[in-house]
Amino acid sequence: MTVALSVVGARPNFIKLAALHKPLARSFKHIIIHTGQHYDFVMSKIFFEHLEIPKPAYNLGVGSGPQGYQLGEMIKRVEGFLIKETPDLVVVYGDTNSTLAGALGSAKLHIPVAHIEAGLRSYDMKMPEEVNRVLTDQVSQYLFAPTQTAVRNLNREHVQGKIYLSGDVMVDILKDSLKIAREGSKVLDNLELEPKQYVLATIHRAENTDTRQRLRSIVQALTKIKEVIVFPAHPRTRKALQKFNLYNRIRASRNVKLIEPLGYLDFINLERNASRIVTDSGGVQKEAYLLGIPCITLRDRTEWIETIREGWNILVDVNVDAIVGAVQKFNPEKPRKPIFGEGKASEKIVDTLRNNLVDESLH
Questions:
Q1: Which residue has the higher pLDDT, 339 or 40?
Q2: Closest CA to 148 of 283, 363, 338, 347
Q3: Do 3-168+341-362 and 179-329 have matching folds?
Q4: Which residue among 122, 278, 305, 362 is least enclosed by CB atoms within 10 Å?
Q5: 3-class SS at 89?
């Protein structure tokens, strides 16, 4: 039986994997490698449980560390299991270090790579994620672009692989998960929240957490906002708040609920019931658009440019007044177009891979 091997390691990877696992498993022997990039339970194991993803065949236990060390350890450890399993195809997801490690390890062994969410560009090479995207696309044989913009980016770069407009697999998993979240999540009751009476904030990107001045501006803005702010703190963010002596300030604020990270179902329930979302996450920008929640992005550029063009996302960087003003006034009313597809991306991707691998085996 044809073997497809998925390499994952962080929350955004797990969510995309959840959309693809079942259709992949119907057509291939599907093996999952977890690099251990996210080793915290809530950032890792709980996603597998809530999203009904089978336990990975291998957990490499790489953990955190400097970018170069983490990437090098991942490539070294992934390579051994690629040699052991000899897959016909390796599937990588998004733009994490695990994505690039899986792609580079496979390319060196001449194993075809399929990149889910190919072609995204912020055109800011200071972002680790941008480096990961560009390099992964350059070594992938099958590039599944979620939007027309992503297709144009790949064509402009003259990538060597085959480009497919697939739609976005996160539409698939969000559609499937929303009903479960509505019925099963008690997060609003647990946090004593009323729908549309709070703002959801997420901060985790290195550009914001690794710089005292940027993180201080974000904290200043959050504590100035009059609405209740629900702030699930990523482990990296919590450490940064403590390192820069900002933790006690935000804990002492009357309007900010600083909470532990959440599983996917609780998190999307918080998203869909928020009045607005303040974030630096690419995936959350997209989820906000899909859920119809105004999004305020703490960056000066984004890979999800379509959400800006459609008027449901605004870039404010870390300007305190701009953040506070956007929370007060940003209220898009125009209809949302189905720019990320209709929720059939996973089946389309697997059909394409199956047909390509069958064709190649006949020649």
A1: 339
A2: 338
A3: yes
A4: 362
A5: strand
Residues 105 and 113 sit within 8 Å (Cβ to Cβ): no
**3-168+341-362: which CATH architecture?**
3-Layer(aba) Sandwich (3.40)
| For residue 361, pLDDT beyond 60 | no
236, 210 Cβ separation under 8 angstroms: no
Task: Round to whole Å and give the CA distance between 185 and 43.
Answer: 17
Integer CA distances (angstroms), 350 to 158, 174, 290, 306, 330, in order:
24, 18, 23, 25, 39
Query: Alpha-carbon Rg of the chain, whole angstroms?
Result: 20
Token look-up 């607005």 returns 276
Active-site annotation, residues: 204
Spans of all domains in the chain = 3-168+341-362, 179-329
The candidate with the shortest Cα–Cα distance to 288, out of 306, 301, 261, 300, is 306
The CATH number assigned to the domain with range 179-329 reads 3.40.50.2000
Contact 353, 345 (CB under 8 A): no
Treating both helix axes as pointing N-terminal to C-terminal, what angle do 128-139 and 148-157 enclose, rounded to 10 degrees?
Answer: 70
**How many whole angstroms separate alpha carbon 140 and alpha carbon 122?**
19
**pLDDT (tens digit, 9 = 90+) per residue, 59-86?**
999 988 888 999 999 999 999 999 999 9
Inter-axis angle of helices 11-27 and 345-362, nearest 10: 50
Q: Find tokens 């506070």 and name the residue.
A: 324
Half-sphere exposure of 300 (CA within 13 A, CB side): 9
